[in-house]
Amino acid sequence: MRKLWIWLAILVTTAVVVIWQWHGWQWHEWQGHEWQGRPNAYLPIAQSPVHQQPVQMPMVKVSSERLFADVTALSFVRHSNADRQRARAYIDQALQAAGWTTQLHPFEGGVNLYANRAGTHPGSGSILLGAHYDTVENSPGADDNATSVATVLEAARLLGAQPTTRDLTLVFFDSEESGLLGSQAFVDQIVQEETTQAAVILDMVGYACDQAGCQSYPSMLPIQPPTDRGNFLAVLGNQGNAWMLNSFVQLQPNQPAVITLPLPTFGGLAPDLVRSDHAPFWKKGIGAVLVTDTANFRNPHYHQASDTVETINPAFFVGSAQIVVDAVAQLLQH
């Protein structure tokens, strides 16, 4: 993942956001071994552009065994061409085993891998779920970004055979760590603006800490931080897409806290806010959210050789994956 300063650098600029539109933090509080609910003020849900009766879909539950099997299998340095090809082969095999037909998208600097599954209502558009699979040199990238890749693979298994109103596109981006090359090429060459209703981008979703002071914030933070503990999942979205943010605020018991933050339009953002794979979508005017554990503002193993599977917080990771799958399932029915 590219330096996640993102969520918290965002807060450096929230003086504007606070004045512009602030609906309150959305969060639960971690106590002991369960996530305890807490009252919140929610963003109003925007009117969905889809007007057909949505397909009813049963609840699905993520598997901690499969999630950790994927993270373990992918926890090797994925920086060289050969190592990234090895990671792609693993992802491709997992997708095909789940019944998906995969496609490769070569571009200058790497190869994206993606798969599509049609919905039940043609013309209702598609939801894209994506994560980058490369790492920086010398880091095995368990949190950055094997946790996110594993979550997308789990969504593929659970949602692939489920009838949903909208199409579902899964994307595994290459060369994020080299400057968002894969996501930029995918948006430029593959994504259809008129049919892509939303993009959900995952970048590190497996690290949590509950010690006082383990969550850091920018020194110029203009508002009081909600907590000094790194036990929440951050979801950042661009202006006008509250319906996307709302899909992540579900108040399920025993799941991580969720903090959602709406941001102004792309042109008004500082450069530090557009360094992950959501940025090309925002730039193109496509609604997208970034889902993250805030990376180096919490995780001391960020971009280090110590970013191994042993550092992943099991309850937080599995809960984050469940939140993502539930949110995507909801977006597919809008």
Query: Can you list the strand order of the major beta sheet?
Result: 3-4-6-5-7-10-8-9
Q: Which secondary-structure class do the elements indicate?
A: alpha/beta
Radius of gyration: 18 Å
Task: Give the number of DSSP strands.
Answer: 10
Give the arrangement of secondary structure elements.
Elements: H1 6-12, H2 14-20, E1 29-31, E2 34-36, H3 64-74, H4 81-97, E3 102-107, E4 110-117, E5 126-132, H5 142-159, E6 167-173, H6 181-189, E7 196-202, E8 232-238, H7 242-246, E9 257-263, H8 279-283, E10 288-292, H9 314-333
Parallel strand pairs: 5-6, 5-7, 7-10, 8-9
Antiparallel strand pairs: 1-2, 3-4, 4-6, 8-10
Describe the structure in brief.
The protein has nine helices and ten strands.
Word description of this protein:
The chain has 334 residues and is α/β, with parallel strands linked by helices. It has a single domain, classed as 3-Layer(aba) Sandwich (Aminopeptidase). It has 9 helices and 10 strands. The protein has helices at 6-12, 14-20, 64-74, 81-97, 142-159, 181-189, 242-246, 279-283, 314-333, and strands at residues 29-31, 34-36, 102-107, 110-117, 126-132, 167-173, 196-202, 232-238, 257-263, 288-292. It has an 8-stranded mixed sheet, with helices on both faces. Strands 1-2 form a two-stranded antiparallel sheet. Strand 8, helix 7 (242-246) and strand 9 form a beta-alpha-beta unit. Helix 3 packs across helix 5 (142-159). The radius of gyration is 18 Å and the shape is globular. The two termini are 29 Å apart.
